[in-house]
Amino acid sequence: MDLLYAIFNCQGWIRSDEQWVVVRLEPLQQPARRSAQEQLCRKLTGLGARIPGGKWLRIEVGASPL
Predict the structure, then answer these.
(1) What pLDDT, on a 0 to 100 scale, did the predictor assign at position 40?
(2) Exposure pattern of 7-33 as b/e (b: 16+ CB <10 Å)?
């Protein structure tokens, strides 16, 4: 539960274009936690979620703003 709390409380950025809404989270510092964070983001993106306006949702980990 502590790991999920850490992931969901990360700073991040949101960018939107005609097709995508991209959420980028700052990477966690500990390598094992960062790996789990990246895996969760890939899994969530892989679900193919769409927001009500029809755009696809992509969640990723990255060190810099979009």
Answers:
(1) 96
(2) beeeeeeeeeeeeebbbbbbbbeeeee
Residue found under tokens 């306006």: 53
Find where tokens 């964070």 sit.
37
Over range 42-46, report the average pLDDT: 97
Looking at residue 28, the DSSP 8-state letter turns out to be P
CA dihedral over 43, 44, 47, 48, signed as positive or negative: negative
Residue 58 is which amino acid?
A: R
The encoded tokens of residue 45 equal 């993106």
Query: Measured at the alpha carbon of residue 19, what is the angle toward residues 43 and 24, in degrees to the nearest 5?
Result: 45
Residue 64 burial (10 A CB sphere; 0-12, 13-18, 19+): exposed
User: What's the pTM?
Assistant: 0.86
